[in-house]
Amino acid sequence: MRVPAPGLPPRIRIHEVGARDGLQNEKSVVPTGVKAEFVRRLAEAGLSTIEATSFVHPKWVPQLADAEQLFPMLGDVADVGDVALPVLVPNERGLDRALALGARGIAVFGSATETFAARNLNRTVDGSLAMFEPVVARAKDAGVHVRGYLSMCFGDPWEGAVPVAQVVRVARALMDLGCDELSLGDTIGVATPGHVTALLAALNEAGVPTGTIGVHFHDTYGQALSNTLAALQHGVTTVDASAGGLGGCPYAKSATGNLATEDLVWMLDGLGVETGVDLGTLTATSVWMAEQLGRPSPSRTVRALSHKE
Question: For 61, left (φ over 0), alpha (ψ -120 to 50), or beta?
Fold first, then answer.
């Protein structure tokens, strides 16, 4: 039953990360054809932004080593509708590979903390920003949409709680490079709604408009939906989610799965917030993907809707 709540946006955009953030955390390598079919099914479910893959060196993320083979297989996905297929690039070499295949959207992946920057990027925070500067500039010159991911925005497994001012500094720097949007990552899932609201307000005060912000929550402590709702009440209209709840973070072992897209859509459907996503089709897609992976989906909505007596 739809019971709208006041103060929420009428429609939000789901930035689907299952095919990239989800599959990069799998122990086994998923066949390229299965990945392509996964993306097609996600598009058929109504998702309009599907992060397709990552042009990171295969040594670091072997699960996505087939980016050059996969991306050309997705040309027909655009025929499903107006579907964006952004890709993650770590540096100029990754950008070269993505642009050569015609990518129209890219993302860079920064950190709000020094320890995670060292472990994930082998650089300091400021060193990583310097690495991203030519990537963002060249992408913008090529007419490519740029997203800036910022991880460890709420807590870090090595450094503990991350001061809001520290996050704001790096977020502002990413936007100053020329990023079109900013995704705030709760990489280890420790955020709570008040913390979310405080960070969003601080970003606004620093000149980062709410309309450029997306949120990326992990459900480690069961807070992903409540944190998302707090962000929507603040005016955020872009939410990252992963079909079936796939994913974690290969460089932060305490990070569990992303917010499941089905759980998000169930909540938003009930609130009367439009997403353009057909929940039945999406659930069937995640059930199919779980079969390919050989284990049940962690999404509670997928389990509830696919349960057979």
Answer: beta
Instruction: Report the distance separating Cα 96 and Cα 137, nearest Å.
Output: 13
Catalytic residue chosen out of the listed positions 188, 249, 282, 293: 249
Task: Report the DSSP beta bridge partners of residue 105.
Answer: 145
- Check if the beta carbon of residue 153 is closer than 8 Å to that of residue 184: yes
Place of tokens 């992976």: 293
Statement: the pTM of the whole predicted model exceeds 0.85: yes
Residue pLDDT, tens place only, 67-125: 999 999 999 896 677 899 999 999 999 999 999 999 999 999 999 999 999 998 899 99
> Is 122 exposed, middle or buried (CB count within 10 Å of its CB: 0-12, 13-18, 19+)?
exposed
In terms of residues, how long is the chain?
309
C-alpha closest to that of 150 among 168, 176, 136: 168
User: Is 249 marked active-site?
Assistant: yes
- HEC assignment per residue over the chain: CCCCCCCCCCECEEEECHHHHHHHHCCCCCCHHHHHHHHHHHHHCCCCEECCEECCCCCCCHHHCCHHHHHHHHHHHHHHCCCECCEECCCHHHHHHHHHCCCCEEEEEEECCHHHHHHHHCCCHHHHHHHHHHHHHHHHHCCCEEEEEEECCCEECCCEECCHHHHHHHHHHHHHHCCCEEEEEECCCCCCHHHHHHHHHHHHHCCCCHHHEEEEEECCCCCHHHHHHHHHHHCCCEEEEEHHHCCCCCCCCCCCCECEHHHHHHHHHHHCCECCCCHHHHHHHHHHHHHHHCCCCCCHHHHHHHCCC
